Amino acid sequence: MNVKWRLAFRLIVWLTLAGIALLALAGGAVYWSYQQLMRIETARDFENAGLYRLVQTLRNEGGDLTFDPELLSIIRDSGGWLQRIDENGRVTDAYFTPPDVPDAYGPGELVAYWMGKTEFPYPLYLWIQEKDGVTHTLVYGLSNEDDRLLEQFAERGEIGEGSIALPEELANRLRRSGAWLQVLDSSGAELASSNKPPGALGRYSLQELALRSVYADRYGAKLTSFYEEATGRTWVLSEPLSGFAPGEGPLFPPEAGVIVAAVGGVFAAAMAIFALVAYGFGHRFGAPIVHMLNWIRALDEGKYAEPAGRSGPSRSRNRRGRTKGGYRVFGDVVRSLDSLSETLRRNERLRAENERLKDEWIAGVSHDLKTPLSSIKGYAHMLNADAYEWTAEEVRSFAKVILDKSSHLDELINDLTLTYHLRHGGRPPSLETVDMNDYLAEAVRDASSHPQYPENGVRFAPDSRAAWLDIYRPWFQRIVDNLVANALLHNREGTMLTVSVRAEPDGGLSIRFADDGDGMDERTAERLFERYYRGTDTESRAEGTGLGMAVTKALVEGLGGTIEVDTAPGRGTAIVLRWDRSLPENRAG
């Protein structure tokens, strides 16, 4: 899975979790709204909704029945009372019951009170409901104190010009409660009022009077009315609810307030969730992107390592070396940057090493050029000096030295030219296919006939099968010359060099130059094929150019082969040349 799909998958997971949270939030908001609407309906119509909820919330704790305290508080605040009776009519539980309410009822007596066939001092409601196999019978009554008070206002109040004159105690009671009294004519227009606040209605329609009598919470005031049949007038007593000033009402109906609060809460919570998701997603996946950009910027500045974090040398990994969660998505990118950093570090080391080698090589070449030039220049001065008369024999000896040094310079220049040519992709002028068993025997014989080499110091071991290879003879002869010279001149006296040919079953070919000499240490073996590197034996064959093994490697690779060295101090050196599928197609089989 690439970075794009990993990011998409994680974004889907995050959004799914956010969606689940929003669904849970919406469900909670719906439940809360339902509870609030039920409370509103309970307060308005307690004789139905409230009594139903009383039974639904009834709990049996060790044989004792417990009602919801919030519902009981609504009964108390509304001036009501509650009784629970058993199947025999006896009251088992009572709350806020006035003294004139009986504590036992006969079957016909309770029904007569409930149906209004027998006078009862309070409006009475009966509720019978089963729960958990038990039938509960509740008697709910309402105090008619407001009705009696309004009747007193109507009996003792005197209507004047726009005002109502009340006895002192009634007027004080009206003022203390913050209520106001109005008298309406038959059309609902106000005739007179007492303690009326600014903003109160001066005219009531039939619908307005009815709605205010039932839905007090919508208008912020409880309204009680008394109608006089004889005069056609209506006395209206309005008392502000708790939390409202006289004449003031709520901005929204209670139901609308619940809906606005629920929707507003869900919206605010949704914005908070999305903000958290955006912040979390940005922090978890944006921080790695910023880190990788800083990494790239550091690479541009030549700092070939991952920028360090607070908890360790690597910001993308923890203390145990494992990739951190936010960086796993960008695992491919992090690995690529890490690989690039390692490559750049290696290239920087190689560049520094090459610079060092170049300086050493230039110094060595300069030294090798200066040494024969110094000899040539010295003998030239001697020949040119007027103070001496040189014999013919001395002049010939001087000329021989100058000729030898000139030849060495020519050899050095030719080697430099050849290495430059091969380094820039030079190819052999022509190729010919030869059997290396026959060709190499002759090439080794020519190479080992040098006067400085010991007799019988080289042994050739051909393969029993034909070993065909495409070669350029001058280049290959130079390879053999260099390898033979390297083995015989840089080892102790008596060293034996064995040159063997092996035709591989897969069509490849290998040629092995193995000696039983002193061998080389690891550093010398690593730098054996560097230009102008002679190892530790710098005194052997001082006339050499120092480019022999570098030229050999370049020539082998120019002919399509590879070269490797196997050596260790005390066990000799083996240099192996390999060609893959060297057998020409027309010779196969």
The profile of the biggest β sheet is:
5 strands, mixed
Major sheet: arrangement of strands: 14-16-17-19-18
Segments where pLDDT lies below 50 for 5+ residues?
Answer: 534-543, 583-589
**What structural class do the secondary elements suggest?**
alpha+beta
Strand composition percent: 15-25%
Say which CATH homologous superfamily of the largest domain is assigned.
Histidine kinase-like ATPase, C-terminal domain
Helix content: 40-55%
Total count of helical runs of at least 4 residues? 16
Number of domains: 4
- Second CATH tier, the architecture of the largest domain: 2-Layer Sandwich
Whole-number radius of gyration? 57 Å
Based on DSSP secondary structure assignment, what is the total number of beta strands?
19
Q: What is the CA–CA distance across the termini?
A: 49 Å
Please give the oligomerization state of what you see. Answer: single chain
Mean pLDDT: 83
What's the CATH class label of the largest domain? Alpha Beta
The coarse overall form would be rod-shaped
